């Protein structure tokens, strides 16, 4: 059985790369761009908050909660790929388990867009129980 891609592939956005990908960059250049972002563009305060200790906490939490908590509430089973802080660290939140949610990428993006003032929305705090 052939698997049909959910969207057509396009050339990698990295200058001179002709590799086709469904994301902005091919796998090789995505790693390069992530490293560039972490080194030159990410705030030092954020880098300190999300260091090695956070990665261990995140991996442990995903291990205990392998499915997206929002999707489960909608009777869907979607693997969790990200961990969300219910109360953001920038507003006094912690890495404690009662302040974390396991989410899939679409659910995390939705919550982040609604909570963040990046898109000039009023800041809200979400708690799904």
What does this structure look like?
This protein has 129 residues and is mainly alpha-helical. The chain is built from five helices and four strands, in the order ββααααββα. The strands form two sheets. The chain has a two-stranded antiparallel ribbon with strand order 1-2. It has a two-stranded antiparallel ribbon with strand order 3-4. Strand 1 and strand 2 form a beta hairpin. The chain starts with 9 loop residues before the first strand and ends in a 14-residue tail after the last helix. The model has no long low-confidence stretch (mean pLDDT 83).
Give the topology.
Blueprint: E1 10-11, E2 20-21, H1 27-41, H2 44-49, H3 52-64, H4 69-73, E3 82-85, E4 100-103, H5 105-115
Antiparallel strand pairs: 1-2, 3-4
Question: Tell me, what's the shape?
Answer: globular
Radius of gyration: 17 Å
Helices and strands, in order, run as: EEHHHHEEH
Number of strands: 4
Strand order of the largest sheet: 1-2
Strand residue content: 5-15%
- Decide which structural class fits the backbone: mainly alpha
Tally of helical segments: 5
Enumerate the spans where pLDDT stays under 50 for 5 or more consecutive residues: none
**DSSP helix fraction:** 25-40%
End-to-end Cα distance: 40 Å
The average pLDDT value, as a whole number, equals 83
Biggest sheet overview: 2 strands, antiparallel
By oligomeric state, this entry counts as single chain
Structural features:
129 residues, mainly alpha, two-stranded antiparallel ribbon, two-stranded antiparallel sheet, 5 helices, 9% strand
Short description:
The protein is mainly alpha-helical. It is built from 5 helices and 4 strands, in the order E-E-H-H-H-H-E-E-H.
């Amino acid at each position: 059985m052939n698997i049909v891609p959910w969207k057509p592939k396009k050339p990698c956005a990295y200058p001179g790369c002709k590799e086709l990908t469904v994301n902005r960059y091919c796998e090789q250049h995505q790693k390069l761009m992530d490293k560039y972002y972490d080194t030159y563009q990410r705030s030092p305060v954020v880098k300190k908050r999300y260091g090695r200790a956070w990665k261990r906490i995140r991996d442990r939490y995903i291990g205990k909660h392998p499915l997206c908590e929002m999707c489960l509430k909608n009777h869907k089973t979607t693997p969790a790929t990200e961990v969300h802080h219910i109360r953001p660290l920038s507003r006094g939140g912690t890495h404690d388990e009662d302040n974390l949610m396991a989410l899939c990428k679409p659910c995390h993006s939705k919550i982040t867009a609604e909570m963040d003032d990046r898109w000039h929305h009023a800041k809200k705090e979400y708690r799904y129980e």
